[in-house]
Amino acid sequence: MGLVTTHAIPIKTVAYGEADLIVTFLTRAEGRVTCIAKAARKSRKRFGGSLSLFCITQIVYSQKPQKGGLPLLSEASAIRSFENILADVSCVAYASCWAELVLRWTHEGEPGEELFNLLSGVLSLLDFDTGQAGRLHLIYQMRFLLLAGMAPRLDSCAVCSKPLDEAAPDGLWFDNRAGGLLCKTCFDEKGRGVRVDAGTIKLLSWTGKNSLDQALRARFSGPALMNATKLLESFTPFHLGQTIKSLDFLRRLREVP
Ligand SMILES: [Zn+2]
After folding, report:
1. Which residues make up the environment of ion ligand 1, defined by Cβ < 5 Å?
2. What residue ranges in the chain does DSSP mark as E strands?
3. Which of 113, 140, 152, 169 has the fewest C-beta atoms under 10 angstroms from its C-beta?
4. pTM greater than 0.85 (yes/no)
5. 214: pLDDT strictly greater than 90
6. Contact 32/96 with Cβ under 8 angstroms?
7. Domains plus CATH for the chain?
8. For residue 105, how far is its CA from the centre of ligand 1 (angstroms)?
9. Phi–psi pair at 243, nearest 5 degrees
10. pLDDT tens digits along 86-132
């Protein structure tokens, strides 16, 4: 039975039996992997804090499931924990939302190095500055959609391909079903879509390009950030075809004065 050693982020834990823990990781080597951590709840010494949600940890697990079971986690040691995230309910809500996208949209064992780098990158930046949560949320969603091959079309009309700059003077709309931007002619024909401004669309495009640091340095005005967030938080579950529970929680949390 082969053993895999890799960096990983615990994204879901479920108590199992008397003392065990089932842990789903996003791993660098093999994407999403769910393991059983024997006696993890019985002995604190066994895995220490290495299975806390959203930390970066090094794990060793058996590659092939045991008969009818899950891969067995044999070692885990925390490399970096994100105390600032865990101390802030709003940051936990954002991180939970990012983790839920991985849980709902990827399959066990799919290659996941780019996704691992994305999630570990945004978690590190969030822990460094929890005030960046809204921007990081936008950047993460946009890049996640790009990696999943489901990003909205933003450079031209999703129906007739008229370039953004040509279409903008007559107004721009965004339609989930069309998969992105609509020019005025296509909006009139379809009769659906929400009005958007070119600044919001360019902001969304920018967040999907360049390095994480560069994307974070882009100038975000408050209204553009809010509009772009609304668009993506509607687009993402529409194309996922499922409700994202932690997104609902995040929205309710934002409404709390
Ligand atoms: Zn069009």
Report:
1. 157, 159-160, 162, 183, 186
2. 3-16, 20-27, 31-37, 56-62, 73-80, 172-175, 180-182, 194-196
3. 169
4. yes
5. no
6. no
7. 3-148+244-255 (2.40.50.140)
8. 29
9. -75, 140
10. 999 999 999 999 999 999 988 888 888 999 999 999 999 999 999 99
